[in-house]
Design a protein that fits this description.
17% of the residues are buried. Strands 1, 2, 3, 4, 7, 8, 9 and 10 form an 8-stranded antiparallel sheet that branches. Strands 5-6 form a two-stranded antiparallel ribbon. The model has no long low-confidence stretch (mean pLDDT 93). It is mostly beta strands and 199 residues long. It is built from 1 helix and 10 strands.
Length: 199
């Protein structure tokens, strides 16, 4: 059948598994630093744009005239459920909070948001059929100046693990107001190098 096919490179171009959240990622080497925590049910990324239609109130102008459409903003989020928590992670989930200098187990919420509360966060996922440790393919999403805007949530149940829902939202900056606060990388994997036998 002519139209009952899939591309020859389908498996090569698939994103696989749930992926991970990390604090830092090197796009050149594929190395990451500091896993945020264990998650459940995968991660959802959403970059929702908002638009203005300047032709909306013009007589005889159809809606969504491309020359009169303006992109106003983008709201980019990574959301999901964590199954692990530490004082540092609880501080991040509360968003506006401090860890007590005299008692590292004590997280104190505060009223004001500080510049230091905003942190970059990455989601990394396996990509393509080549997923070796050194040269594996990846999909990567980088949120700039992320803040958990979903509130500090704990859901518990009998004979089960506690669940901590999160929604990390990227934020624009006055320092670079035209910069959309997220970016995406999609890199094919490469075959692992093999050691040639000595002669």
């Amino acid at each position: 059948m002519k139209f009952t096919k899939i591309p020859d490179d389908t498996f090569q171009n698939m994103q696989l598994n749930a992926g991970i959240l990390v604090e830092d990622f090197n796009i050149e080497t594929g190395e990451f630093d500091k896993l945020v925590g264990a998650t459940k049910g995968g991660i959802t990324f959403n970059a929702a744009p908002t638009y203005s239609d300047f032709g909306d109130d013009i007589d005889n102008c159809p809606k969504n005239m491309k020359e009169l459409k303006k992109l106003d903003s983008v709201e980019a989020t990574l959301s999901g459920t964590l199954l692990t928590v530490t004082p540092k992670l609880a501080k991040s989930l509360i968003a506006a909070a401090d860890i007590d200098e005299e008692d590292a187990t004590h997280i104190v919420p505060r009223k004001d948001i500080l510049e230091s509360d905003f942190k970059d966060i990455w989601w990394l996922g396996d990509y393509s059929g080549l997923n070796g440790e050194k040269n594996g393919g990846y999909c990567a999403i980088h949120l700039f100046d992320a803040l958990n805007t979903g509130g500090f949530q704990i859901k518990t149940s009998d004979k089960a693990k506690g669940e901590f829902a999160f929604t990390y939202m990227a934020h624009f900056s006055m320092a670079d107001q035209d910069k959309i606060p997220y970016e995406v990388y999609i890199k094919l994997g490469e075959a692992e190098p093999t050691e040639e036998p000595l002669p």
